[in-house]
Amino acid sequence: MGPCFCRIKYKDMASLPLADLDKETSFFFKPAVNMKKYKEKMWDGIIHLLDKNHMSFPTGLFPRVEHVLKSHGHRVVVKKLYNDSPEREFDWKPNNNLSFLN
């Protein structure tokens, strides 16, 4: 199984708090301090996990995103696009002729 992502779908995308969402889904990459682009101030060392083109982010960050959206007065509805019930592995049939060793 590959990475799992969540998507934000909203009628008025312009009203979403993008700066706050980006801040909550970003982190400083500590090894960046040793990288050339960071030293030359061409990169701030921040990894942004919010894809603003598709409005998607890793599923593990959902509680953070949900908190930001709710704190800005947005309603959050979760729609699963997959079946999370396990597949049936066995066809169990009751058997009244069970015997146990004593």
Could you give a short description of this structure?
With 102 residues, the chain is α+β, with helices and mostly antiparallel strands. Helix content is 21%, strand content 12%.
Helix content: 10-25%
Give, in order, the helices and strands.
EHEHEEH
At the fold tier of CATH, the topology name of the domain at 5-71 is Translation Initiation Factor Eif1
Strand arrangement, largest sheet?
A: 1-4
Radius of gyration: 23 Å
Structural class: alpha+beta
The total beta strand count reads 4
What low-confidence regions span 5 or more consecutive residues with pLDDT below 50? none
CATH A-level architecture of the domain at 5-71:
2-Layer Sandwich
Characterize the largest beta sheet: strand count, sense, and whether it forms a barrel: 2 strands, antiparallel
> How confident is the prediction overall: mean pLDDT?
88
Distance between the termini: 46 Å
- Estimate the strand proportion: 5-15%
Given the structure, what is the number of helices?
3
Name the CATH class of the domain at 5-71.
Alpha Beta
Q: What form results from the Cα inertia axes?
A: elongated
